[in-house]
């Protein structure tokens, strides 16, 4: 495909991603995407055939990017604390940029017959990563550095502490009168709060 065509295709995908997951226009039409991208609507049909296929493509690529990032964090030889610090940083930053992604994923996973289809990690890879993280958690427990906990509860605590402030954004903004810039700063501060809640120490620099 020619460079100009690739650039147009990427422009359309990036525009759709911004509308769907950054601005929350999950039901944005082909015409709205074309207008936002500054292209003819026929080009969207040329590259993606339909709005639904464009959406699926954008979602697949977004989830692959996230999964690759998480895999790169948890599969290293770093300590558990470094991994969790990096996860918190990446997870919250990603959702500051795409605040509506998590809401959509939760909704879709509850009604999908194959809720894990957009998570691109091979089964053996997932098992290996879980084994590594579980071993590191239990080493922390054995050394008396964290209270006894299973990997399931540990990860649920971590995800809940990171996720809920993203899902509760409208509630928090209404209660505390936060504008967009203030809430972005609040989420960045949240990284330190989450890490301290898990390990009772300051987030490493």
Topology readout:
Blueprint: H1 3-22, H2 30-37, H3 41-48, H4 51-74, H5 80-97, H6 101-111, H7 123-142, H8 151-167, H9 169-176, H10 180-199
Helix pairs in contact: 1-2, 1-4, 4-5, 5-8, 5-10, 8-10
List keywords for this structure.
single chain; mainly alpha; 10 helices; Tetracycline Repressor, domain 2; globular
| Total separate domains | 2
* N-C termini distance: 43 Å
| Named CATH topology of the largest domain | Tetracycline Repressor, domain 2
Helix content: over 70%
Gyration radius, rounded: 19 Å
Q: What would CATH call the homologous superfamily of the largest domain? A: Tetracycline Repressor, domain 2
What's the CATH class of the largest domain, please? Mainly Alpha
Global morphology: globular
State which percent range the strand residues make up.
under 5%
Largest sheet: none
Number of strands: 0
Element-by-element helix/strand order = HHHHHHHHHH
pLDDT average, as an integer? 88
Q: Could you name the ranges where pLDDT drops below 50 across 5 or more consecutive residues?
A: none
What's the total helix number?
A: 10
Structural class: mainly alpha
- Named CATH architecture of the largest domain: Orthogonal Bundle
């Amino acid at each position: 495909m020619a460079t100009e065509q690739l650039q147009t295709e990427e422009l359309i995908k990036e525009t759709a991603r911004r509308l769907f997951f950054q601005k929350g226009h999950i039901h944005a039409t082909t015409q709205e995407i074309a207008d936002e991208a500054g292209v003819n609507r026929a080009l969207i049909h040329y590259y993606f055939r339909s709005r639904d296929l464009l959406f699926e493509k954008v979602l697949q690529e977004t989830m692959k990017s996230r999964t690759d990032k998480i895999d790169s964090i948890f599969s290293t030889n770093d300590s558990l604390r470094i991994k969790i610090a990096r996860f918190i940083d990446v997870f919250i930053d990603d959702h500051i940029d795409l605040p509506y992604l998590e809401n959509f994923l939760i909704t879709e996973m509850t009604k999908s017959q194959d809720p894990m289809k957009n998570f691109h990690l091979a089964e053996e890879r997932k098992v290996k990563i879980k084994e590594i993280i579980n071993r590191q958690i239990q080493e922390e427990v054995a050394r008396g550095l964290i209270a006894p906990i299973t990997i399931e509860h540990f990860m649920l605590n971590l995800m809940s502490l990171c996720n809920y402030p993203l899902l509760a954004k409208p509630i928090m903004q209404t209660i505390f009168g936060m504008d967009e810039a203030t809430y972005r700063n609040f989420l960045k501060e949240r990284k330190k709060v989450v890490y301290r809640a898990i390990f009772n120490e300051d987030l490493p620099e």
